[in-house]
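Curious: why these numbers?
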Amino acid sequence: MPNTREKHSADYVIVGAGSAGCVLAARLSEDPAVRVLLLEAGTAKGRHPNITIPAAFAKQFHTKLDWDFSTEPEPGCDGRSLFSPRGKGLGGSSSMNAMLYVRGRPLDYDLWQAQGADGWGWSGVREYFLRSEDNERGASADHAVGGPLRVEDERSPRPVTEQFLEAAQAAGIPRIADYNGPEQDGAALAQVTQRGGRRWSAYDAFLKPALKRPNLMVVRGALVQGVELSGGRATGVRFVDARGREQVAHAAREVILSAGAYGSPQLLMLSGIGPADALRSAGVTPQVDLPGVGENLQDHPAQVCIWDLPGGGSIADAETPRAVLEYLTRRTGPLTSTVAEAFAFVRSRPGLPAADLQFHFAPVYFVDHGTTTYDGHAMTIGPVLVSPKSRGRLWIDSPDPSRPPRFVTNSLTEPDDMDAMVAGVKLAREIVRSGPLAQTAGRELFPGPGVDDDSDIEADIRRRVELLYHPVGTCRIGKDELAVVDPQLRVRGVEGLRVADASVMPLIPGGNTNAPTIMIGEKAADLIRVCA
């Protein structure tokens, strides 16, 4: 039998089999001369029905498939702790999310470049979106076919979803064919990362086809404790395997952290890389004083507005025998729904350079992250602030890797952020009063009667707002003293160590973050290969 050192040795050691990690493992292992080791703390392999069946995604929350994080008490949200699920298993959060394929605006990436992320402007990232994509609509100036990531139209949107789009148009929001085109503003049906009515995660698209390669090894149930450092260089990582045994994985070339916006900064801090004084307070000996680690945390706050549907037509009956049979035999019907079936991107006030609100329309009652039931049919319109000014941070309070990191988003502590959310709630109500929804919608359940003027709406938002599961920014790209990685994603002050995941985003994109995270994995693979 080979010893532990020989067994866990590779050219590249990747920590985290989430969206970016799956891409990196697949792309780097395309070279048969390169040995790749992928470590994943979770044990799930993407087969659970709550993973594969699109409409069941929220059933993963608070289970073994979920890291089950929550923020510290949020000062802008009535001191509440906000739930922040993260996928635990192969595919990471791409195996848990709502499968919504949204790139964001070209402006988002040009702003990254303006903040010091050289090469990450739209002209520098566009090709990586296209490299991944296999779009059902075919190749065009804005889309591609033949990539690993299948992107399809929803197979069975509910009729009320079309009514939402008509109502949005009646309220002055133009109908558009493609929110991933040059212009995002407008309302459209969602495109989703599905293949034939089932989830198509980063595991399905990238990692699973690569598992047959002899130069790729995947270890599940591997809880990484920290990065091994020697002479200012990362030489590997320490981890505990599924049997509780301490192991070391040695990296001949590089260690790449792809553990997400919470996991990657936590691992840096546990390794002594971060703000020195804060590390000492947590009982960790500083190795590299990098004050930006854990700073710049951003997420999208979301508020649900809900109306009863007295005539039915929601996806509340998705688990009826008829719907289950339809899914099993035809891969159609309400179980193929991603819950959020349509979008509207709008500007909360004139003069903004791009939409700062993204409305998610869901033909279902979606309260408390889908854990609360309703005796009847309902629809949800959720205004989401996609350009928040508020910034939070993440930190550790112990050298124990099994303790979750602590973090706060500071959501809605900036006045402009609250003003935009209030405008969003008012516009949601206007949409429901417009076009066909005026006859379809019943009584307003949330915010509900009595929440009328701006102060009432603001109080209701602080009382009920939640996060949309899009944490980013805690190891941001840049060239200033608070940047954690340089534009090549190399950790400042450490050789042989990179971060490649949503944590490197300087600014949160104007939309759902899975597609941009996959793009980061694609571009990171090229950056790494250039240096090999």
